[in-house]
Amino acid sequence: MKYSIFPATGDSISRLGFGAMGLGGAFGAHDENELIHAVLHSLDKGVNFIDTARGYGASEELIGKSLKQWKGDRPFIASKIRPRGPGYSWGMPTPVEECFPKGCITSDIEESLRTLGVETIDYMQMHQYWAGWEKADYWMEELIRAKEAGKIRTIGISITDHRHDTALALVASGAIDSIQTILNIFDPLALDCLLPLCEQHGVAFFARCVLDEGGLTGFLTESTVFADHDFRKTFFENVPRSQYMAKVDRLRPYLDEETRTLAQLAIKFVLHSPAVTSALVSMHIPAHADDNFQVLQTEPLSDEIFHTLRTKHRWIRNFYDTKYW
């Protein structure tokens, strides 16, 4: 495993983070014992950053059970406040008072602490953010009070869908310690302004959807069927599958002995910049996680290939708009 530094605390963070959405059944149902084993497996491989959320079903609970079995150093734990707003709030701006009513941040932090079985959460995020919310300062005050009480160590946001630009002013303000946003081969726009700004202001940068909900692994076919509760059931239905598959197939010529799979190519793209603190990927299936870990033992992408992927393979679209409203 390789590590980077969380600027606000100096903690050493694994450059591949355990994205725990899959523990809640978002990508298919799995046996509880198998999921706990997956967490322990990743920790044993050197992963020391776990990203979960109140809105990820049983994810926090399973992480708590895993931590009770883990004998090594305690990992850096991140969670997120659950938005209360209507479903369309993920697709278009909604007042912060609707998504995060007064008191809900405090109560969610208490619930997360109990569920995870820890005394302190290392990084607590708002699980949604729209520009202009900083004018209503009560939500930040609740986070700061929790930090002062030792219940959380750092504060940040998980940016709504692909709109990383909504957080530029907040990052520059110095009010937060970290951000999480979408970054992948198809959508590299956060590299243009947000990532440099985070580096300038000492704000940690966590990349999510690195594999585009799995699509960049090349698993999707015309006959792929998803269960009713699988997050991907509607996600990939906003463009013809043949179009999506063709976009992925155009990436295959970049595979070689150092980059054997499309998943490895996607992860290498995101980790190319040292300013990316960690790339969050689903690790609830150990065999897939092991394939991802091999990325760190091979040569990084050349600057030439990285530039080509960044400029010639971007495919800017927002599937979340139609998924949520």
How many strands?
Answer: 10
What is the helix fraction of residues, given as a range? 25-40%
Name the CATH homologous superfamily. NADP-dependent oxidoreductase domain
**Termini Cα gap:** 40 Å
The assigned CATH architecture is Alpha-Beta Barrel
User: Total helix count?
Assistant: 13
> Radius of gyration, Cα only, in angstroms?
19 Å
The helix/strand series, from N terminus to C terminus, equals EEEHEHEHHEHEHEHEHHHEHHH
Question: What is the overall shape?
Answer: globular
Strand content: 5-15%
CATH topology, by name, is TIM Barrel
Q: Structurally, how many domains make up the residues?
A: 1
Give the averaged pLDDT, no decimals. 95
SSE-based structural type: alpha/beta
User: How are strands sequenced across the largest beta sheet?
Assistant: 3-4-5-6-7-8-9-10
**Ranges with pLDDT <50 over ≥5 residues?**
none
Major beta sheet summary: 8 strands, parallel, barrel
CATH secondary-structure class? Alpha Beta
